[in-house]
Structure formats: structure tokens, C-alpha cells
Amino acid sequence: ALFTEDNNFNTLVLDSADHLEPIVWAQACKDNNWSSIEAPGYGRGYVAALDLWRVLIDGLRALRDERKMTVILIAHSKIGRFESPETEPYDRYSPKMHKGASALLQEAMDVVLFANYRVSTVKTDAGFGKKTTRAIGGGDRVLYTEERPAYLAKQRYNLPSSVPMTWQDFAAGIPYFNQSTEEKA
User: Fold this and answer.
1) Which of 37, 131, 132, 180 has the fewest CB atoms inside 10 Å of its own CB, making it the most exposed?
2) pTM
3) CB contact at 8 A, 141 and 164
4) For the segment 122-133, what is each residue's pLDDT rounded down to a tens digit?
């Protein structure tokens, strides 16, 4: 409907991709007559679900490219073990989704941001030679635009590595939002 019907919408926000995932799995099960996404065995259900994600991605691209809509997908995060081939394993934030769907969405998106609060730590003397570490912060939200060991992020623009979590600060670095109405059409 967003693609084929007349509307005045400029932005689509899908909140959230991780909550959409069980719906995608249910559709894959229905399409294949499975009792669960794991019924076909050895990850085949999750692979079949990727075809449905690809249909969604194609639709989102059409909205972006042909209807000139801004498309934003939100996903919650989880902390998981990252097994790097270059270092010892460590924990990092990643989207709270099956790894195949998460990778597919990340590859398709122009910008993948990690949102978090700005946090600092201070060490204080707890007595008897012990130090305690305490987190402090003023509640400032930050969007990180480049991958770091602690989180996934990427961009195809020239955004700084972090920006305050405001639409104005984010949009300032995206060429599309800084074009005139004629240039966008």
C-alpha cells in the first residue's frame, strides 16, 4: 500500500526488526507446512526465512528508490560472545536476531547505527587498597556510526564516528536530507 497507493508519507519506521522476525518465521512455516522454524532440521528453516527477508528488503529498497521514502529499521540488541579469528573471544552488542537475518539486513542497509548512552567510568578508593569502578553519565544518547569491538555499525556516507542522538545531527551528515526538493525528485 505504501508503494502503490497515493500517500504523503516521507518516512517508514519498522520498530522492530527483531519483533518482526517471529512473524517472518511463522510465514516460512506456513509456506512450507512446518510445525516450527526448526522442524526441517539443521537450520534449513532459518535459511528459508531469508527468502522472505529478501522480499522485504526489495520492498524497502523500492520505497527508498522509487517513492523517495526514508526507511528506518530499529532492532534491539543483545550481548553475545564474538569469536574473532584474530584475537581472543570477547563480548559485543549485536542485533537481537538470528545471525543469518541480522547479517542480511546489515548488508542491505546504507547505515547501521548503534545507539547507547554516553557512559564514563571512575575509580574510587574503597579502602584497604581496593578500588571500585562506577559508571557515570548524564543520560546523553549517542549514535555510533563505525564498527568497534563492542558493537556493530557501518555507514556509506561521511558521518563522524559518533553523533548526538538527534535527527538534526544525524540528518546533517546524509546528503539526501540536505538536497533541495527539486534535487530529491
Assistant:
1) 180
2) 0.83
3) yes
4) 888 888 888 898
